[in-house]
Amino acid sequence: MLLRIAWFILTLVALGPALAQEDQTVRVGVLRFGTVAWEIDTIRHEGLARRRAINLVPVEFASNEAAKVALQAGAVDMIVTDWPWVVRQRSEGAAFSFIPYSKAVGTLMIPRDSNIRNLADLKGRRIGVAGGPLDKSWLLLRAYARKELGVDLAEEAEPVFGAPPLLNEELARGRIDAVLTYWHYAARLEAAGAKSFLTVADIIRRLGIDGDVPMLGYAFREDWARRESAALQEFVAASREAKTLLADSRDAWVRLAPHIGTDDPAVLTALQAGFRAGTPEHWGEAERKASADLYAILVNIGGEKLVGKAKTLDPMTFWPSVSY
Fold first, then answer.
1. Sheet containing 158-162: order of strands
2. End residue of a domain, out of 159, 187, 206
3. Taking Cα atoms as reference points, which of 131, 125, 180, 134 lies closest to residue 156?
4. Does residue 241 have a pLDDT over 80?
5. Cα dist. 179→125, 147, 166, 191, 217 in Å?
6. Which pLDDT belongs to residue 19?
7. How confident is the model at residue 22 (pLDDT cuts 50, 70, 90)?
8. 130 close to 180: Cβ distance less than 8 angstroms
9. Among 150, 174, 206, which residue terminates a domain?
């Protein structure tokens, strides 16, 4: 009996830290049908967070703006957004920081039978743009056209701003000539027969940026990251493990089909390929430097409407203790 009691006490002592860590809740804001929801669902389904003593709680929002408001109000601990937003928030006194989520931002898609052959052919065309005039992919395409052709596509073409599903439909009906959209909507177009003309990753390289730049990432408050530093590191590990699983496993995508909204094998294949291509392989000083160089281009083309007072990239935009 005494041996059993002693064994029980030793077990509690051994498990004590782990049991305490189970209270480290991480609330992540997600859009119901967004790619972040797929990653978070995979982490939870595979037990990757639980294994690391994290209580990972997804909180659904109807829009990116609603998620940003929730982060600012402290209703969630993390959301996925782009780092230029983090830079602007920091310039306005809000101490947010960022770790990479994806380097897949967008793609310029054209119909399979399109006669668009080069960048100059975009002049005079109706180009759908997912988002608004300050969409980062649109700004980068404008910067690229300015560099290569000496023209501003905002003036030489006819941008049509709108929601990605609507723009996909407009392209299918021939009402626009091309669409610059988020990668997962581009994957659906590709599965339906459209083709990629130019990716944002290509644009970034052709603008002279040397190195991969993950534009999207998990944003959070600095004080939260300091307080929950162990949970943050464990979350990063779980996220990277989930990305590896999603890159390699077809079954993982079949399981996610109800969340994605389709079980079409061609769409799932395209989505998996796009997700794999967007997974950051390295994150260190080289990528931080490339991001700073890219930010200078965004400042030049987007101006104060995009960046506010932040003319240069604050180094603390990127959380210093996360590298790989």
1. 158-162, 126-130, 178-182, 106-110, 195-199
2. 206
3. 125
4. yes
5. 10, 21, 11, 15, 24
6. 43
7. low
8. yes
9. 206
